[in-house]
Write a structure and sequence with these properties.
The complex is a heterodimer. By secondary structure, chain A is of the alpha+beta class. Chain A has a single domain, classed as hypothetical protein PF0899 fold (2-Layer Sandwich). Chain A is built from two helices and six strands; from the N terminus they run αβαβββββ. Chain A has a three-stranded mixed sheet, covered by helices on one side. Chain A has a three-stranded antiparallel sheet with strand order 4-3-5, with no helix packed on it. In chain A, helix 2 links the parallel strand 1 and strand 2. In chain A, helix 1 packs across helix 2. Helix content of chain B is 30%, strand content 19%. Chain B has a single domain, classed as P-loop containing nucleotide triphosphate hydrolases (Rossmann fold). In chain B, 42% of the residues are buried. Chain B contains eight helices and eight strands, in the order E-H-E-H-E-H-E-H-E-E-H-H-E-H-E-H. In chain B, strand 3, helix 3 and strand 4 form a beta-alpha-beta unit. By secondary structure, chain B is an alpha/beta fold. The chains are: A alpha+beta, B alpha/beta. Chains A and B meet through helix 1 and strand 6 of A and strand 1, helix 1, helix 6 and helix 7 of B. The complex binds guanosine-5'-triphosphate (GTP), magnesium ion (MG) and zinc ion.
């Protein structure tokens, strides 16, 4: 369950930022999670509940932006929506693709007070 | 405090158990914090930013010392330690080896490596299901590997969790054994996507299990069209020469970033 260490990393980033701004509390946190990031959402949500207890994130409202996968075929150059790493190009069936979006896993912003 | 990375631990390889929650004993006064003004902070940071920075550092260290660092990943029992044991003994006159053993609880694998006469560091991750770049950094500090050596990192047996954590290795080697079934590459695509070499182990058992060599490669190429394959049996020794040849080629040409 690596999702627990992912939540711990988010917590560390958020608490450091809160400290920088002398904030007592984090009211909101905005995350970006790509479809191809390798984050298992149910496991992530479970880990989230466990890990934020008695931290500055405990009361924070969490906003998650799901980012859809986008790839470009290296054979025919067309762009297409990719949902799994093994999806072929729907135009020519090729697997040599460049993933342009969907690998993101970021802390975008916080609201602190 | 550690001067290299700013962490609170000393330079023993078992540094921090990622995945274990830290204690937070500072008090919160949620009740009357509303007089504070709200501030929006644009963070824009990768969640794994810290790990990736340390991984870059490890990579720089390996490159500067012309060390070939390989991260071995697989599900439990695919034969990572067996492959290492064979390699360390068969190639001991050709390479200087170092090994990091990641294991949740025991020193069993480290003991097996130690028995071959190779310098080995054990990292017990406890509940943690993967190694991270921070652990490798500290292990490097205590091992001080020599130039032009080959540095193996046996990750925790798990085909999911280690995928997201760059350790600073030059190549990631995924090992799968024929008893696991030929559909593993699409069931665990992240690991096959991020690896450069796939070792298919336990070929001596092929007569006894339904496993198609063509199918496993086809599935793996769907996830990663440039993946290389080497078929071996650590028990019979068949195919190991190809793996040793691969090592030789990788150490001849300095690895590119
Ligand atoms: N038949 C056969 N058995 C093998 C082969 N390679 C390894 N084994 C056996 O598979 C079992 C697991 O091997 P290990 O080398 O411990 O596997 P591992 O990947 O290091 O396992 P963990 O560290 O627990 O994840 C042992 O009983 C080995 O003897 C092989 O080529 N053929
Ligand atoms: Mg092992
Ligand atoms: Zn195409």
């Amino acid at each position: 369950m690596h999702e627990l260490s992912l939540v711990m990393s988010i917590l560390q980033i958020a608490e450091r930022e809160a400290e920088k701004h002398d904030a007592k509390q984090i009211e909101e946190i905005e995350l970006e999670i790509g479809e191809l990031s390798g984050v298992d959402r149910p496991a992530f949500d479970f880990a989230w509940e466990q890990a934020i207890r008695s931290t500055k994130l405990e009361k924070a409202q969490r906003h998650i932006h799901d980012i859809s996968g986008e790839a470009r075929c290296l054979e025919c150059d067309k762009e297409f929506a990719i949902h799994q790493l093994f999806d072929p190009c729907p135009h020519c069936g090729n697997h040599f693709v460049e993933i342009r979006k969907g690998k993101e896993f970021r802390v975008k912003s916080l609201v602190v007070s | 405090m550690c001067a290299t990375c700013g962490c609170d631990s000393h330079s023993s390889p078992t540094i921090r158990v990622s995945g274990e929650s830290q204690s937070h004993d500072h008090s919160h006064d949620h009740g009357h914090s509303h007089s504070h003004t709200k501030t929006v902070v644009e963070v824009e940071k990768d969640v794994l930013h810290e790990n990736n920075l340390l991984a870059q550092r490890n990579r720089g260290y390996f490159e500067a010392k012309k060390i070939l660092a390989l991260n071995l990943v697989s599900s439990p029992g695919s034969g990572k330690t067996s492959l290492l044991e064979k390699t360390l003994i068969d190639c001991k006159d050709e390479f200087q080896f170092y090994v990091i053993e990641g294991d949740q609880q025991t020193t069993r694998d480290a003991d097996r490596i130690h028995a071959t006469g190779t310098k080995v560091a054990q990292i017990n991750t406890g509940k943690g299901c993967h190694l991270d770049a921070h652990m490798i950094l500290h292990a490097l500090q205590s091992m001080k590997p020599k130039e032009n050596s080959v540095f193996f990192i046996e990750n925790v047996g798990n085909l999911v969790c280690p995928a997201m954590f760059d350790l600073g290795e030059q190549e990631r080697v995924v090992i799968i054994s024929v008893t696991e079934g030929d559909d593993k590459p699409i069931k665990y695509p992240d690991m096959f996507h991020s690896s450069t070499l796939c070792i298919i182990n336990k070929t001596d058992l092929l007569p006894y299990v339904p496993f198609s060599m063509d199918k496993v490669k086809e599935y793996a190429r769907q996830v990663n069209p440039t993946l290389e394959f080497i078929e071996v049996s650590c028990t019979s020794g068949e195919g190991l020469d190809r793996w040793y040849q691969w090592l030789k080629e990788k150490t001849k040409v300095p690895a590119e970033a």
